[in-house]
Amino acid sequence: MILDLAPLVCGVLLAVSGAAKLLGRRTAQVAANTVLVRVLGNGHRAAFALRAVGAVELVVAAGLLAAFPGTVLPGAATALLGAGFTGYLGHAKATAPQSSCGCSARDEGPIGVRSFLRAGAVLAGGVAAAFAGTAWWSRVVRDPGWSVLVVAVAAAGLLALSTDLDRVWMPLRRLRLRVFGTPLPAGPRGWVPVEASVELLERSLAWQASAPIVRSALLDSWDDEGWRVLRFAGVHHDAGGARPVNVLFALDDQATRDANPSPAVRVSVIDDRTQEVVPVDLLELSGLHKPLRMA
Predict the structure, then answer these.
(1) Rounded distance, CA 218 to CA 4, Å?
(2) For 201-233, what is each residue's pLDDT tens digit?
(3) Which string of DSSP letters, residue by residue, matches 209-278?
């Protein structure tokens, strides 16, 4: 049954991810933070490559959903895609660890374990689809109850490997912290959750000014001599094309909405390759005209 339903599951998965890449409004933005920028030289080529991959996914998805028993090509093509995704992720992780994978044309976070598991799932699903003995629609008609259960379990597993749900959980976590406070004991000066610092940052002028560059969620944070540093991945476009950068924000590590709702925020843009400070006028870039400290 799993083999017979593999074309359905893989077909829907590739159709969704392929449509997001090919037709998504944020494809160019996501592509700018992938290793494709380094490989192809600029963001426009990276976006074109990502859309091309989306088109291939849609073609393979159509083949899977329309394949008759004994048709090996769609499953083999899916397995080949999975193997290609895995190789691409391995190269990106080795050469640009903080880059985005661009897997769904929505996720802009760095490549992690879930990215590799998703690629592995595509590879395994393609192999299973290649050995399907019955058309998936025939299997659904024959065993509707079990078919729905298998597809539901597979969908739940794929959702667990997706980072899209993180956007749903983060506001709920922040609400819990507001209502119940942090479960961790206070330190010598009183410990402020990182989520609280991120919330203050996202309300600041510094965040608005840096919005054209930032391309990820929070990647890392640390406290240093009274400052809390928050690191995000980004892309800066200059005369040389798209340049991967790290955007560092520093604010008072004791600032909260109650104690200091508008803390001073320092911003540094660091070249991801050379680790040198990138001179950029964020106010001019964003169209804002209020004072902003740059480090």
Answers:
(1) 41
(2) 888 888 888 888 888 888 888 888 888 999 998
(3) HHTTTB-SS--EEEEETTEEEEEEEEEEEETTEEEEEEEEEEEETT--TTT-SS---EEEEEETTT-PBP
